[in-house]
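Narrative of activities, Objective 1.

The group set out to show that a structural description can be obtained from nothing but a protein's sequence at a throughput compatible with the screening campaign. Below is one input-output pair from the validation batch, recorded exactly as produced.
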Amino acid sequence: MDLTAYTLGETDQLLKIDNKDDFTALILAMSQQARYKILIFSHHLEHLLFDNEPLYEAIKQLAIKNHRTHIQILLQDPKPMTKKGHRLLNLARRISSHISIKQAHKEQQELFETFIIFDDRGYIMHTNPDRYDAYGNFYAPIKTKQLSEQFADYWEQGTIDNSLRRLSL
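Output recorded for this entry:
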């Protein structure tokens, strides 16, 4: 999938994804274009989609860009991430002032959706955890506002899981 013609905050076109390679390319393209914020609601931040070096670098660059940038990750189940390890978990532990991870409240733990919001402008929505079907848009302010409000509600109810914190020795 060639995403070079798509610009976060400008290109208003619904994109439908049906495979892992296009899904990871879409996540990466939007992450690289984000300027101040990424919000992720995910079951367990699936390794095949989120645990790769290009995405790690994109999120790291965003996190260290300036003092106002932030990334919030809300997980329904953090166990796979903490057991297997994860680049983004390690990054969050190193740059905790810009990257926060919480566990979703039990009411949200049974949801079958993943959504990602980029700068309150673009989003990606994934509703079937058994497949790579997803859709997204680089510029959809109304849908993004709705998802941001939903994320804020979920975030408020979430808790900090001790397994996600940095261990001080």
